Amino acid sequence: MLSPRAQKIKPSPTLAIDSRAKAMKASGIDVINFGVGEPDFDTPDNIKEAACRAIRDGFTKYTAVGGIDPLKDAIIGKFQKDNNLAYKREEIVVSCGAKHSLYNIAQALYGPGDEVIIPSPYWVSYPDQVLLNDAKPVFVKTVESDSFMVRPEALEACITKNTKALILNSPSNPTGMLYDKKTLEKIAELAVKHNFYVISDEIYEKLVYDGVTHVSIASLGEEVRAKTIVVNGLSKSHAMTGWRLGYAAGPSDVIKAMTNIQSQSTSNPNSMTQKAAVEALNGPQEFIITMRDEFDRRRKFVVTELNTIPGMSCIMPNGAFYAFPNTAKIYGARFGDKTISSSTDLALYLLEEAKVALVHGEAFGDDNYVRISYATSMDDIRKGLERIRQALQNLEIRK
Ligand code: PMP
Ligand code: GLU
User: From the CA of 126, how far away is ligand 2's center (Å)?
Assistant: First the structure.
């Protein structure tokens, strides 16, 4: 018999769809994968070389659990430069990916009776990490017409004496939207007034477009900084998903608890990856601009095309590498003896009929949408969108 905890959670749907698309591809099926959020760029050579050097130099042993000092110092430098935030080493912990950092935060902070507020649509792992720690996710709906930002008054209405934390993600996965400073200031006021933590997942910080500026909520004053744990990592910014490196910055008592939890679970993040991460953060950063400019080109193309596909409409995201088209008008359409009545039906239809993998909005808490990751080649984007258009042309869709 599995534990009640294990029975409460499901596998990550984004990773599940990616596995399915990859398995179809391996069996010879020509699938276009818009499923997973993973840069199609290769990790820059200077970063790879730093890891190779670490291996050659024998830097292959256990390290300090929460990360080596040169890496903590590089992270401190990044926070100072990018976010105008000053942290000390004891306020930083390095983990095996941002997902791991978020998991350690959940372990360190949430428990039975705690409520954790999650604006929806949300990234798939937030609710399950809350459930894994016997706390309760409380969802607050956001809408397209508000650029998917939580309204401070809607947030305030969810706050109870049991509210332990709010999980904020800007730029957002899956909507691609960025919070503006004014809204963040109001959220910060609420966190301070009602004394809850803000978990600020800023992993898409470097991928912002149209000249907008990413603001870390922790930078909006000493009081909110003391209640915020900032999460970031190298998966998206430096195309390092497989290396597994993320980090968190926050109050030293929380960071210490996270480090203790890590010391009893994974121990240190991979030693070679840590050396590579020092190079990623301290070395040349031009690669990020090149990657971002290419994502920007694809973003404009994808969103423009989606808005010409019958049944779909899509707002222009200003961050990350996801488009989140509204597909509600398609629901009710029939093909053969079947009806498409949800985002899950639609995703399955597109996978089977068009051989295009994307993620159903239901996985992110909003069934009226699907998520398209455009972190794939322009050729695949053109082909995939054309296949979607063709497959939807075979359906009877409401105007
Ligand atoms: N947060 C968000 C919003 C994400 O999309 C991801 C996806 N990878 C992560 C955290 C975790 O990233 P990683 O564990 O690869 O650092
Ligand atoms: N974050 C990425 C996504 O949403 C990677 C998959 C995952 O970690 O769940 O697709």
Answer: 11
